[in-house]
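Exercise: predict the structure of this protein bound to NDP.
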Amino acid sequence: MLGLEDKVVLVTGGNHGIGAAIVEVLEDFGAKVAYNYRSEPGPRGSLAVKVDVTDEAGMAEFAERTERELGPIYGVVPNAGIIKDNLIIKMPAEDWHAVLEVNLTGAYYTIKPVLPKMYERQEGSIVFISSLGGQRGNIGQANYSAAKAGLIALAQTLALEAARYGVRSNVVAPGYTETDIVKGIPEKVQEVLIKQIPMRRFAQPKEMAWVVAFLLSPIASSYITGQVIPVNGGQYF
Ligand code: NDP
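Solution:
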């Protein structure tokens, strides 16, 4: 229906949370999905590989293996992310570096080995997972917000460089989504956060995955590139 049947898509952090929902929805649309993880594999996907996104050589091997076992990669979804929250004045430098390394540099390591082949084939779609924090900043999340804003600039630059090769690059910017990250927030704080959301609820992971599928689609979003789609219940636009 979306033209994703038998397309090979590589997702990072596909074992749980938003990443697992992306793997599930893409498979339901007929795609062959490879994903990586750090801890334990998830329930779906055609290929699951344990490799850290901060391992440049490992990510190149993961891309090669995906092409060898599943076929030419059509789509990439850099989704893996971590938080290490603190006010700027209290943030240890190691937490700054760790979040930038996983959330931003990890995305660069993910797309770099795949792009030359996409350019040759004149076909491909990349969808980065940013955040509300990357659009407007967030108290206690300087490292995370800086990394997520960096992803938007990376995606827009890639859109400009890749357009002539038939490759598109877009961003989904989720608001608060009910995964382990949000479930870990104390209930009282959750209540305060929900009051800030016009739709008065957190998102479900699949509500991000549908938008990812749309932006990957060679049919439904064929003329969309360099865009940021906020999926945040009206919290910020
Ligand atoms: P989870 O913590 O549930 O999942 C994070 C995923 O990233 C896991 O699959 C994890 O693998 C993987 N991961 C983390 N670090 C690495 C690493 N170094 N190498 C490989 N994989 C790694 O988070 P969410 O599903 O909530 O978040 C997914 C994305 O969505 C993130 O980029 C996050 O920033 C973004 N986002 C989430 C929001 C939310 O409210 N939940 C809001 C806005 C954006 P493993 O489990 O094996 O460690």
